[in-house]
Design goal:
By secondary structure, the chain is an alpha/beta fold. The chain has one domain: 3-Layer(aba) Sandwich (Rossmann fold). It is 35% helix and 26% strand. A six-stranded mixed beta sheet has the order 2-3-1-4-5-6, with helices on both faces. Helix 3 links the parallel strand 4 and strand 5. The longest helix is centred in the last third of the chain and has 22 residues. The chain starts with a strand and ends with a helix. The model has no long low-confidence stretch (mean pLDDT 88). Bound molecules: guanosine-5'-diphosphate and magnesium ion. The site of magnesium ion has 5 residues, from helix 1. Magnesium ion binds next to helix 1.
Length: 172
Amino acid sequence: MIQKKICLLGASSVGKTSLVKQYVQGIFSEKYLTTIGVKIDKKTITIENDEVQFMLWDMEGNDSYNVFQERYLRGASGYIIVVDQTRSSSLLEGIDINTLARQVTDCPAILAVNKSDLPATWHLDNSENEAYKNLFDLQFSTSAKTGANVEEMFLTLAKLLLRCTNDDITTK
Ligand code: GDP
Ligand code: MG
């Protein structure tokens, strides 16, 4: 079994905790509970003959996010920047957080534009889309509420990480 640490990052209340809950437990709650500190959930999936155990690190949204990056991201195989499609400021915060994360890791990164079940108040225009293609390995439009694209996002990430792991082995 291959263990992969994945960190959820992003502004507060974009849906980090809800995405993990939807993915691991298949449930959604409208109730807003701030995550205190770090919570680690585990989920194992099988891809072809490989078992991948995700360790999903979910941290409380924090305005002074620069203080935790290094410790939180240590040993991560990937991270997900979550933004909220009903709040454009969450994109700016997400991009800032990504810049900080990039100072400590070069692991694969995903941009999850969450709350796709709600009307969007902002869109990425073509030039932004191009720019973000370079910043992120993958982009998904997700809903922690309906579950849209949640499994797909983690499955695609697992496949990408397996490919990286296999590349490591074959180049050794
Ligand atoms: P976090 O601070 O990033 O962990 O955000 P939470 O997961 O706690 O979610 C913040 C609020 O947004 C909660 O009220 C959730 O119910 C709500 N929420 C999260 N994801 C979605 C989503 O995909 N759709 C909708 N409609 N609400 C969501
Ligand atoms: Mg949370």
